[in-house]
Structure formats: C-alpha cells, structure tokens
Sequence to fold (143 residues):
Amino acid sequence: DGSMWRIAIKSPYESIPYLGIVSIKEKAVITSGNYERYFEENGKTYHHIIDPATGYPAESGLTSVTVVADCKEPGTRNGTMCDALSTALFVMGEERALEFWRDSGLAFELVLATEDGRVVVTEGLADRFTESEESGYTYETVS
Fold:
C-alpha cells in the first residue's frame, strides 16, 4: 500500500527484545552481530565474525552493526553491499566504521550497538529511527 516498513533491530542481549525500529521504504537493512553464531569454551565466547588481522573473533567494542541503503534503482546490489559492509564495519569498530561512513563516498546509514551500552545512529536515519524505551541503552546521533 506504499506505507513504510517498520523493521525492529534485534538486541544482542536476550533480556532486551530490540534496540530500536527503523521505518523504511525501498531500502536494504542488514545486521551483523556477535550474538547469533557463537560458542563458549573455558569461559571465553567465540563468535563467527573473524578479524582477518588476527584470525580470531573480532574484538571491536561493537556488538551489532546495521547498515541501511537505498534499493529503489533497478539492478541495485545494495543488499549485497550492506551485507559486506555490516561485517567489515563490525571488525573495524566504532571509530573506524564512522570514519568509513563519512569518507567512503558510498550512500548508506548505520546503527551501531556498543559493548558499553550505547546505540549510535547516523544522521540520515535519525528521523526514521525509534528508540526502544525499555532497552537500557543510551542513544546518540552522529553526523
């Protein structure tokens, strides 16, 4: 009917249902996180997002990266781009991910969840992102 889709971004923590909701239309929304595919051994958690510099699970300070990009152009492959970016930006960590977002020349927006309990939303999503009131996260918008 032409209305916006409301996509909930899952929280990395079972006790919190979601980080927030993105209202979008004709966009790809892809999330990578350290909470879906993992195992624990000897008190250490090993997840599936590998840092190519170390060969071990990335320890970037992030728990989740959501990438949103336009898909309205015919033949657009932004869903694939979002999938690749969400993983790469997770490995980079918050500071480098935001630097890449600002400087890459690619048209995409981000929602980053950090280990210290923050959700960082890029300015292009700010008016389409609804915070989860019961999440316990603090929210900030960056430009």
Notes: The chain is about 15% helix and 40% strand.
